[in-house]
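User: Fold this, then the next.

Assistant: Folding the first:
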Amino acid sequence: MSAPGGTLPQRDGLPGVLRLATEALKAAVVGAFALVVVTSFLQVVARYVFAWPFAWAEELVRLANIWCVLLAVGFGIAYSAHFRIGILSDMLPPRLRRVLDIVVQGLMALIALGMVVLGASFVQRTMMTSTPMLGIPHGIAYAAVPVGFAAALAVSLARLVAALRDREAR
């Protein structure tokens, strides 16, 4: 759960280096979103005020949007911002709640690992083709999948280790 002000809660189970990486991820998501907003605004002004649209703007917005969304996967896990059904876990006794947390973090780590492996393979296959206007290899856009899910994997593994340590301590 995120703390007021958009910072990570102090007892999130993340090591210091991972906390810093998560904050860097937050900055990258904000930067990508800002690029989407600014480029879209400039495109609207260029098209409707000056009747001179930028041919490359749509591609840049699409690429920045892809990176924004996929980087937010790891960022969202770090902040526990993803959708979950808490009614079940809230009804469980503390011991079973910890077991459920371990299972969920383990499953999230496995899914993230699969996305990293499959995403990296897809990036390799798509590096030979490029976008028509900017000439950026498609693999650059698709690299957001393994990068975003690598962040999700790191956070899930850190949370899994923290949950296992908490279980051993009791």
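Now the next one, as you asked:
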Amino acid sequence: MNSYNLLLVWVVIILLVRHVPQIILDFINLRKQVRLSVPSSKQAFLMIVLWVVMHGFALESLSGMAQAHNWLTIIGITMVTLGCILGLVALLTLRTSYHMNLVITKEHRLVTDGIYRIVRHPMRLALAIETLGAVVISRNPFLVFVWILLVTFQILRSHREEKLLGEYYGEPVIQYQKNVPAFNPFYSIFRYLLKSPSQMNLNSKRTPRDDKFDVSRSL
């Protein structure tokens, strides 16, 4: 087995490790009672299609390569790996609070701890890094457009999600938005270095209506 076959196997494994738990969690959480939602299933389906297209091109490029250790390929695989790790960490932080669609469900909580203290949408940031790595691997100009389209959908989706959160939670969400950037982790890290950790704490268990209900974070 040559080096590119090993890289291909690695990318397939890391993608499975990252996304299979997400599919399982989504299947489990789909059975929970929805309290409030906004239409988002079609947009989610379109993003899945774009994801499949991008990684399909990347995997095809890896399987057809004859040269070993191309530096762009190594950079791309590193980005895919980092994106998958970040996304998995965010998913494990959410656990039962994850939902594919933009909904408020029973027995969820507003997650503002862990990696969500650094950025408000780490799963979307992770997906952007992961799929940009696929673009670098494939080096297909068409995928640049696909990636921009995917990121645009993710940003629009994050705005819709935060509007839903704000309508349901009110002030706690507003304060969270003021303290934590949406996608830029360097801002939070810089603030953390300048301020004491106690100043960065957010109450992750506050609920304005009923302690039994909370908002799920979505992909």
